[in-house]
Specification:
Length: 238
């Protein structure tokens, strides 16, 4: 398999060059850009698998750039920023970001997160290909589509992975750390409330009443579980 192509977009030369050199040594194909205009130009020519994207650029908003890039190719995006406010993280995830890392960060953590995101490109097993249907809710891992009453639910890649994992183990309670390990696919050392952010976004899209969620339930003091509707039976089909 060819080495993944990664584009680093950051207006700080020290950070941009450090990431570029470090990941190049890990055998990734690398390109860099210092602003939004040059980032889009390189993006078109390079066609990266993943973009490490700074939120604050001199000529562009990172959130808008994320949305623009993903509308073209569905590229993976790791947002990079000095902001730690939860509202900023939610905004990043809403624009399609696959993960979010705040400065300062270790290069080791960055590498592990990149690897976890890129693993989503791997072929899924037969078991993972099974479509899950609970009454009006259908989760199709082949098309990576979720429909509710026939309408497509617009989920980000990470939201889909999280919902598919929970729904694939109905009734099972998962701790936040377990979900991070299973879905994010690495030992996450940051704030585990990142799980809460994603659960909240999914609930807005599939729950009738987010104040009283019935599908993804909070188990106080433990974590989360997917609870099928009382009258629903899990249907699995190839």
């Amino acid at each position: 398999m060819a080495a993944a192509k990664i584009l680093v977009v950051d207006d700080e030369p020290a950070i941009r060059n450090l990431i570029h050199r470090f990941l190049a040594k890990q055998d990734y194909q690398m390109e860099s850009a210092e602003d939004g205009k040059s980032a889009l130009a390189v993006f078109e020519q390079f066609n990266p698998d993943l973009v490490i994207l700074d939120v604050n650029l001199p000529d562009a908003n990172g959130y808008d750039l994320c949305k623009e890039m993903q509308s073209r190719t569905g590229v993976f995006v790791l947002m990079l920023t000095g902001r730690t406010d939860e509202a900023d993280k939610i905004r990043g995830f809403n624009t399609g970001a696959d993960d979010y890392i705040t400065k300062p960060f270790s290069l080791g953590e960055l590498e592990v997160r990149l690897g976890a995101i890129l693993k989503r490109q791997r072929p899924v097993t037969v078991a993972e290909q099974q479509c899950l249907t609970f009454n009006k809710l259908s989760i199709d891992p082949i098309r990576r589509e979720v429909t509710l009453a026939g309408d497509i639910v617009p989920l980000t890649a990470l939201e889909f992975d999280l919902l598919h994992f929970l729904a694939g183990h109905p009734g099972r309670v998962w701790r936040r750390a377990e979900l991070i390990q299973k879905v994010w696919d690495y030992e996450y050392v940051g704030d585990q409330r990142v799980v809460d952010v994603h659960i909240g976004q999914i609930r807005k899209k599939i729950e009738i009443d987010t104040t009283q969620p019935t599908l993804i339930q909070t188990v106080r003091g433990v974590g989360y579980k997917f609870e099928p509707p009382v009258d629903a039976e899990l249907e699995m089909a190839q």
